[in-house]
Design goal:
Elements (H helix, E strand, L loop, with lengths): L1 H27 L6 E13 L2 E14 L5 H6 L1 H14 L3 E2 L2 E5 L1 H15 L5 E11 L9
Antiparallel strand pairs: 1-2, 2-5, 3-4
Length: about 140
């Protein structure tokens, strides 16, 4: 009988120590930065006033401090629209390929649009997760 009590006490103490360590590590770890995924945005590759290809991108928007995921998701359709309009107005074209986009220009444009639509600092950083071209061929001679 004493052996059972001893085993149960040992199990309870081990669980309590593990729970205390997990709780302490949660307090020590900083809160994870909030982000919103934008999938399936098709952007054109335009050269010489002709659409040469479409590139479908997946974006990860890293939010600034004080901005919630819900607020950005509520404006996601407006962000998509602004991005597509910007891509038609000044294409995010790389000079040597029709199968990829200029990620720096794309990110800067989306951050500017987000600051106008949602608020200053709403999107701190834009990460281009993937780019998938409709046609996989590179540049072709004119």
């Amino acid at each position: 009988m004493h052996r059972r009590a001893l085993i149960q006490t040992g199990a309870v103490l081990t669980a309590a120590v593990a729970a205390g360590a997990a709780h302490a590590s949660e307090k020590a770890a900083p809160a994870a930065a909030a982000f919103v995924n934008m999938t399936g945005v098709g952007l054109p590759v335009i050269t010489e006033n002709r659409i040469r290809n479409y590139v479908f991108i997946v974006l990860k928007l890293h939010l600034g401090p004080g901005h919630t995921v819900e607020a950005v998701r509520a404006k996601e359709a407006y962000l998509r629209d602004a991005l597509v309009r910007a891509a038609h107005r000044t294409p995010f074209v790389l000079p040597d390929t029709w199968v990829a986009l200029d990620t720096a220009a794309l990110s800067a444009s989306l951050i500017r649009s987000a600051s106008t639509l949602i608020g200053r600092g709403a999107v701190a950083r834009v990460e281009v997760v993937s780019q998938t071209p409709r046609r996989r061929t590179g540049m072709q001679g004119a």
